[in-house]
Amino acid sequence: MAQVILDHVWKIYEGKVEAVKDATFTVEDKEFVVLLGPSGCGKTTTLRMIAGLEEITKGEIKIDGRVVNDVEPKDRDIAFVFQNYALYPHMTVYENMAFGLKLRKVPKDEIERRVREAARILEIEHLLDRKPRQLSGGQRQRVAVGRAIVRHPKVFL
Fold first, then answer.
1. Cβ-based burial of 108 (10 A; exposed 0-12, middle 13-18, buried ≥19)
2. pLDDT tens-digit map of 102-113
3. Residues of 132-154 as b/e, b for ≥16 C-beta within 10 angstroms?
């Protein structure tokens, strides 16, 4: 994991709607932080800016001391679990969890080890051959978490 710093970060839409206003905080390496607030207060927008999925209007975001404002999402080494799980419906649980590793050309035996270990930790080993449509919402969430953690990202959102 890595340290994440937001330094006076703003997100203003169409020059007037302030979705995130002067966000300044540090998340230390291995620290667990929860963003709480009412609907529409900027929690998801803040996470999307950290991930690089949303441009920031002002301020600076650093990951491990490196300014990432202009770094592509794929180059930030961040895993993001979306609210809707974003699982591939035509793939099994195993294939969903292994997909990102295959794209990164991780050796097959390492993919097998990581997926099986994450499935064990998340108690979804018995679901590895199922498709997402055969899972409950909670099971789908655990698969999405598993897909993220098998990558061993610097930051997990």
1. exposed
2. 999 999 999 999
3. beebeeebbbbbbbbbbbbbebb
Could you give phi then psi for residue 27, rounded to 5 degrees?
Answer: -110, 115
Cα distances (Å, whole numbers) of residue 97 to 21, 102, 140: 35, 10, 11
Reference 155, options 42, 66, 24; nearest CA is 66
Sequence length of the chain is: 157
Report CA-CA distances (Å) from 62 to 21, 25, 92, 112: 17, 11, 35, 33
Query: What does pTM read for this prediction?
Result: 0.81
For 9-48, write each residue's pLDDT tens digit: 999 998 789 999 999 999 999 899 999 999 999 999 999 9
The C-alpha atoms of residue 12 and residue 55 are separated, in whole angstroms, by 10
d(CA 60, CA 62): 7
In this structure, which amino acid lies at residue 79?
A: A
